[in-house]
Predict the structure.
Amino acid sequence: MKQSRKLKQQQAVLDKAETYEQWRAAAKDYDDMSGATLWRRRDHTRLYDYIQIRKRLENLRNLRTKKDDHGLLFALNEGVHGNMGGMGNTDLYTQSLLGTKHLIEDYCTEIADAVRHLAALDQDVISFEEKYDFFHRASLCFGRSALMLSGGGSLGHFHLGVIKALMEHDLVPHVLSGSSAGSMVSAIYGTRSRAEMEDYVDVDSLVAEFSAEAGELKRMRKGSVNYSTEEVRAALERLIPNLTFQEAYDRTGCYINISVAPAELHQTSRLLNAITAPNVLVRDAVLASCAVPGVFPPVALHAKDASGKVRDYLPGRRWIDGSLSEDFPIKRLSRLYGVNHYIGSMINPILYFSNEHEPGERPDMRARFRQWNFRNISSSLRYANKLAQKYGGNSPRLKLFTNTATAVFSQDYRVDIAVYPNFEQFELRKLIQPIAGEKLLEIFQQGERAAWRRMGMIENCTKISRTLDEVLLATDNRAVKGRPHRPTLNGHLLRAASNDGT
């Protein structure tokens, strides 16, 4: 009982932390009190094959100590993947606030160090071609991470807090997707340089920005239930430069991916990016992805032609809120970029009803009741949609409505690392209404704290893929010396994907 009270008091200290350094110091004290620090030091647990990981770690260390570089390359060729011996088990990250077993962290660090060591070797030791081939194969086998930002109305400022926290530790993946509110944040990040983004998320700048946003939204809604497309477009012009997806990538090296849903029946959703829609204007894609039916009218997309003139893109087609059909475009990101590890910033209110919000925690009775209701509604909608598609021949609006509603309730939100807000603190029915600037700042700060709780997991689980991307960028530069444009994350993979109709 005394231990429980101490942990509750320490949790209050964690909740009041204003910087990551303060939070980390408080988290270390919490881990010391809970026994998690001791748990991390011990290899043993049933959750992974610690004997295999320890053996492989010692072998890699010995090979580097003996300077057996060919032996090291052979050992790495045996397999570099994120779930070696079950070390990718998410339950391994539920014991400690700061990370997982030291053995797993040491193993990931050793792999990353070994890759950098091989990359730095003189060509007389291991040829450039042999290293280049290994790095590409290892990258294909290991994959890479993507950060996905869900829809969620005014809670979109939570995403900004997540982005800032990850930026401060160089942990924002090169592949970023967003729908609805998430599309706006992904575009803000993916069209700015690092210095510009740091200025944007500075607290003093944000206070002024959030006050301006709150005022704009109030003016737009005054005397009207709906927002005007032109008013929203004008607001976006202040936040997002007039760039195409390709221009944004050339400027930042970040692949922005924005989900849009069709406004018509019998059409499919699209994932817009520098591969599938290089000439489409990012600003238009964001506007379309934020077009909530009944609040915003559907949006037409525009693109720049060869002369730089703006023209209609897919004339006659209109697009709406991307979160209605594909909030998290997991399969498409996998196909386009070789992504196999997903970090989700999850603010869509539907998650409050469908999911357990903190992985590893058991849901209480209220959460179980919400999940039970959600499953019943989802099942009923699927049945209603079948009937509407079969018998609603003269009612295209009914067909579109049931089809969209079914898609919303049937989406897959399972990710490897989930970053959640505390939904209990928000009035979900007010998510599309103007929110005061100070409340927006509070939502932003909650995003930061939520990311801090996942920082150890994100840093460790992405360490190897980040290192592989780092050395691949250097080897791509050397392999295609003189190429005028920025090298891709994985040249051959993305060139193949550029023919994809996603």
Notes: The longest strand covers residues 255-262. The radius of gyration is 24 Å.
